[in-house]
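User: quick one, sequence for these C-alpha cells?
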C-alpha cells in the first residue's frame, strides 16, 4: 500500500505517518524503516531531529538517513514498510546543494522530476510506503523566481505521487482527512 500524507507544519502528519507505518509493518510482519531526509544546518534543526527521534523511540523503526540521491538505497528497503519523511526536505536538498558542492550557488530546477521518479522507485520496492510532504505550495502568495520554482517542483512531486498512490491524506491541526482511497485504508488506523 502506498500512502501520501500532506499538510502544513505541525499538522500532525509525521505522527500519523508513524502510527500508520507501524501498523502496516506489524500486519505484514515486515521490517519498518524510517527514512529521514532532513540535513541539519543549525542547532534548531538538530533539536527538531532529536524530537523526532525521541517521538519514535521504541517503535521498532530502523532509521535510514539519506537526504539526497535516494535511488542508491531503494533496494535496501525491498519488502519492508517505509515511512519517508519528508519529500519537502529531499527536494530542497536536491535543488539547493550545499556550498561545498555548489560553488556557484546554482539551483537544480530539474530536481522535481528526478525526485518524483526516485520516490516512485522506492515506493515500488517497498511492501508499504508512507510518505510525508508539506503542502507549502498552497498558500497563494507570490515569491521570487527561485522560491516559485521550488514550490512548483514540490507541487509536481505531490501530484505525481498522489496519482500513483492508493491513499492520499490531508493533515490539519491533527485531523486527518482522506482525499483519495478511503475504502482502501486498513481498518483501525489509530489516527483516522
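Assistant:
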Amino acid at each position: 500500500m502506498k500512502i501520501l500524507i500532506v499538510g502544513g507544519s505541525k499538522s500532525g502528519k509525521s505522527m500519523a505517518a508513524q502510527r500508520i507505518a507501524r501498523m502496516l509493518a506489524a500486519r505484514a510482519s515486515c521490517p519498518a524503516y524510517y527514512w529521514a531526509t532532513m540535513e541539519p544546518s543549525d542547532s534548531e534543526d538538530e533539536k527538531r531531529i532529536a524530537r523526532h527521534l525521541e517521538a519514535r523511540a521504541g517503535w521498532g523503526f530502523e532509521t535510514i538517513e539519506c537526504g539526497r540521491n535516494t535511488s542508491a538505497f531503494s533496494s535496501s528497503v525491498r519488502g519492508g514498510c517505509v515511512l519517508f519523511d519528508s519529500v519537502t526536505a529531499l527536494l530542497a536538498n536536491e535543488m539547493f546543494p550545499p556550498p561545498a558542492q555548489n560553488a556557484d550557488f546554482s539551483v537544480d530546477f530539474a530536481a522535481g522530476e528526478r525526485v518524483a521518479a526516485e520516490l516512485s522507485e522506492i515506493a515500488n520496492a517497498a511492501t508499504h510506503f508512507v510518505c510525508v510532504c508539506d503542502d507549502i505550495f498552497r498558500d497563494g502568495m507570490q515569491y521570487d523566481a527561485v522560491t516559485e520554482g521550488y514550490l512548483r517542483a514540490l507541487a509536481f512531486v505531490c501530484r505525481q505521487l498522489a496519482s500513483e498512490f492508493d491513499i492520499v491524506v490531508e493533515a490539519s491541526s491533527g485531523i486527518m482527512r482522506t482525499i483519495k482511497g478511503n475504502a482502501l485504508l486498513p481498518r483501525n488506523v489509530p489516527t483516522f
